[in-house]
Specification:
By secondary structure, the chain is of the alpha/beta class. Helices cover about 45% and strands about 15% of the residues. The chain has an 8-stranded parallel beta sheet. α2 links the parallel β1 and β2. The relative contact order is 0.15.
Length: about 280
């Protein structure tokens, strides 16, 4: 029995490692470690990297201006709700002209103690700017899903809801034609699995949120659900995206290649970026 389990894990890991890079794109992440940046550079996986405050924005702008990074690192700038009481929108505004996507921005009543009225003022100010500039927005919605859905309806735009994990299916967001990125906990989180199963095919993307978030999601998993394959998938950007793609495809009862091709098309349609031009 144990030998069979080990063999199944080995086969699964080999399949993940062999996932064609053409099917991989990271719809939301952060700058991360030097190791992460080196892997993104070597694999040329198209990656939207987020800067959440002015200091991060300075660093990200410099990274993305380097010739070896320009073809696959896509900078996104936005004042994150966690920093809404420490900085002003005007501190981030100079960076908005340097990017094609704004975010992540939003509201958070779960992991954040910034007063919600301050968060909302900063959020709606950035929504207005993004809508006026016709730049897609990446949303952070933790605990404020209903309020954010109501607010964005006032600012017509293209929206990506990153790592949506609410138990309530996002009907309001779908009515606004939002995209969703499936997080790295899709292999165990029932709410994320429900989302992956129920979304229209043309609204799905995948993300890592950075390797730190991938590791966190593994540590959060119930111990009885943890597997060697899931643990191995936490070791790199490519393995995490491959595992998320494989799990999403399995949930939707699709071949990995079909699910991956659709996600690549969605990436292009959402962000107007070609996943293949740098490969």
């Amino acid at each position: 029995m144990e030998q069979t389990r080990i063999e199944q894990t080995r086969i699964e890991q080999t399949r993940i490692e062999q996932t064609d890079l053409r099917f991989l794109c990271d719809a939301h992440a952060h700058i991360g470690s030097r190791k992460e940046l080196r892997e993104r550079r070597e694999s040329k996986i198209p990656s939207l990297l987020c800067a959440s405050n002015p200091m991060e924005a300075d660093r990200l702008a410099a990274l993305c201006s380097e010739p070896e990074n320009e073809s696959f690192l896509i900078p996104t700038f936005g004042l994150h709700p966690w920093y809404a009481d420490r900085f002003r929108i005007s501190d981030m505004e100079p960076f908005f002209s340097q990017c094609s996507v704004i975010g992540e921005i939003g509201m958070d009543s779960v992991w954040c103690d910034v007063p919600l009225d301050i968060q909302e003022k900063v959020f709606t100010g950035q929504l207005a700017m993004a809508s006026g500039m016709k730049k897609p927005v990446i949303l952070h919605t933790k605990g404020q899903e209903k309020r954010i859905a109501s607010l964005i309806s006032e600012f017509p735009n293209t929206y990506l809801v990153h790592w949506y994990s609410s138990p309530e299916f996002p009907k309001q967001y779908l009515e606004l034609d939002c995209y969703f990125s499936i997080g790295p906990d899709v292999w165990w989180n029932p709410d994320v699995r429900k989302l992956a199963a129920g979304l229209p095919a043309d609204r799905i993307l995948i993300e890592t949120d950075g390797l730190g978030a991938v590791t966190w999601s593994f540590d959060e998993a119930p111990e009885e659900l943890r597997s060697h394959a899931a643990e191995d998938a936490s070791s790199s950007i490519r393995s995490s995206l491959s595992y998320t793609l494989a799990q999403t495809a399995e949930i939707r009862r699709l071949p990995v290649e079909e699910a991956g091709s659709q996600i690549v098309r969605n990436f292009h349609n959402c962000f107007k970026r070609d996943c293949h031009k740098s490969r």
